Amino acid sequence: MARLAQLALLLFWPALALALSPGQLQGPVAVLKVVDGDTVELAGLGRVRLIGIDAPESSPNERARLQARQSGQEVQEVVRLGLLAKRFTEGLLRGKQVWLELDVQERDRYGRVLAYLYLEDPRGDWSYGGKRYRQVNLEILRAGWADPLTIPPNVRYAELYLEASREARAKGRGMWGNPPP
């Protein structure tokens, strides 16, 4: 029985740690899969939605149709851009471990954890606990593969994200340039 309790603690420890410490970096947690440009699957946590960004959908679903209407594009073009956004995010995260930072609201209506993700990087812009990190959400925006998406109460980096998006558009990066077919 004690062994079963230890196993359960090991399996659920990342989720317990996250529930206890919003606003602080938690990790490392292994990336199991990139679902699309703004959603990943993490060990012990399941699906995690990146706060503050909205990448094009990578499959022709209702959300892709909405994005197409809002952008004046065809659904196929939204999905093409979504697949490129997913590929970019996979390039950042495949085989990596990430650290998470939560905001005010920890889960969305679909039960996904809402988080800012970080990669350890000695040249990163963020410092925490004596180490340097890059914020994945911001990297995706800077590369032009997502729009900023501000949903209160999770607004900690909203201004930074708007600025990064404006710069990506102005410089024709990612979906704002001429992405390959």
Automatic annotation (TrEMBL):
Record's keyword annotation contains S-adenosyl-L-methionine: no
InterPro entries: SNase_OB-fold_sf, Staphylococal_nuclease_OB-fold
Signal sequence coordinates: 1-19
Keyword Ligase (UniProt): no
Keywords, comma-separated and alphabetical: Endonuclease, Hydrolase, Nuclease, Signal
Highest taxon above the source species: Bacteria
GO MF term list: endonuclease activity; hydrolase activity
One Pfam family named in its UniProt record: SNase
Gene3D superfamilies with a match to the protein in the record: 2.40.50.90
SMART domains: SNc
Domain (TNase-like) ranges: 31-178
PROSITE patterns (alphabetical): TNASE_3
PANTHER family (UniProt xref): EBNA2 BINDING PROTEIN P100 (PTHR12302), SERINE_THREONINE-PROTEIN KINASE 31 (PTHR12302:SF3)
Protein name: Nuclease
Native source organism of the sequence: Thermus islandicus
